[in-house]
Structure formats: C-alpha cells, structure tokens
C-alpha cells in the first residue's frame, strides 16, 4: 500500500483500505474478479476511491434495489462487462401468525440473525414491513438462515427464501424533532437528539463508537451540517434534516430525524 493513500482515511479504516486495495490490484494486475460481502456507504466510498486510482479496474455495486444503503461490489478488469453479473443476493422473508410480530423492530430482526453466528457483512438492508420482514442476505447464508431462524425476540417465525424481484422495500421512517443549540457541535446536537446530557454523550464519541456519515468521529467538537447522518453504538442514529436561522438568544434552530 502506498502510504499517501492512508492520509485520506481514518486510522481505524486502514484494515479495510488494505483489503480493498488488494482487490483492486489483483483485478488490475492478475485479472481477478472479486465479489465482496455487503459494504456500508463509507466502505463503498473507500472502494470507489481506490478503484478510481487504478486505470485498468472498474466496479459495480448492487444491494437489491435502487436506494440500497448496504451493497455488494464486483471488482474486475476494465475490459469485463459487469452488466448482468450475479451478485448472489437473496431475500429472506420472515413472517408469523403471532400478532406480536407487529411490535418487532429493525434491531429485533438483526439481533436474531446475528445471534445465529452470522457476520454483519453477510447482511444487506433489513426492511420491516406490514407482513413481517424482508432481509437482504448473501446467497451463501440464505439456506442456513431459512433452516435455523425460528424465533425473533420470543416470537416464533416462518422463513422463506425469495428472489430479489420479490423484495418489498420499506420506506425510511424518521421521528422528527426541533431543537435549539448553542453551536453545531456534534456533542451538543447528539445530546439533544438522544435526550441525555452532553457529559454522557461525549463518552461513546471519544471511545470511537460514533460515526458521522459512516466514518468514525472521535472529536465531540466537530461541527455538523445539513444531511449528516450520525450513529452512536447502542443509541441508534439520527439525521440532521435542516439548520435554520438563529433565535433571539443567538441559538441555532435545528431539525433532526431519529430513525425508527
């Protein structure tokens, strides 16, 4: 790895940068084709950045639907046509006759799947829908999940593997709130969004458990802007939807939306 590439990425991202650069080099020099696990938006950005540095390599991305957040990538020599490539993605349909199914949330489904020993990188987006859940999964774990996932948060469920064209994508739901803050600092906005003290919100941020736009952010004084997505491990995530004018007391009017 050329050391100058590291300058553009956080230290915690170096392991992924190394792996991604190896995929790119192998495609360009050894004509290898690589199908990755699911990437989050930050990992996709890193991979696209590295692919663009190599003149003989290109990549394609697929998460099952147009607005997918998590996607698999195929990295290949530039002479290979990637249109129509099989990204080996399936839909795991989860349903139940138990009315308690309607109370289940995104985290319940993900927790139950990960509880079977599945790595997060094998899962794409998880859609909570009226009939239950449609989880985008890599083909290689589909049969295992179909056989072994029988319960979600104490609710007995039934599963079925479906092709991608049967996916029912859920609309993103945000619980919006209007707050006023003295500054646009991360810790100030996050403490109001999660309704806890600034002293408490600083702890996970400094511990590296906070991401802004999927990039680790350890500086509580970092200023946020419209469109930023902030996630804090164990607390969920929120988006900065709008930054308005100042109040008479000189505080910023900010609208945030918590993902539900």
Automatic annotation (TrEMBL):
Protein name according to UniProt: RNA-binding protein
Species name: Paenibacillus ihbetae
Any one Pfam family match given in the protein's UniProt record, by short name: YlmH_RBD
Domain of life from the UniProt record: Bacteria
UniProt keyword annotation of RNA-binding present: yes
GO MF terms held by the record: RNA binding
This protein's UniProt keywords: RNA-binding
Residue ranges of every copy of the RNA-binding S4 domain listed in the record: 184-244
InterPro entries assigned to the protein according to its UniProt record, in alphabetical order: Nucleotide-bd_a/b_plait_sf (IPR012677), RqcP2_N (IPR048443), RqcP2_RBD (IPR040591), S4_RNA-bd (IPR002942), S4_RNA-bd_sf (IPR036986)
Gene3D superfamilies tied to this protein: 3.30.1370.160, 3.30.70.330, RNA-binding S4 domain
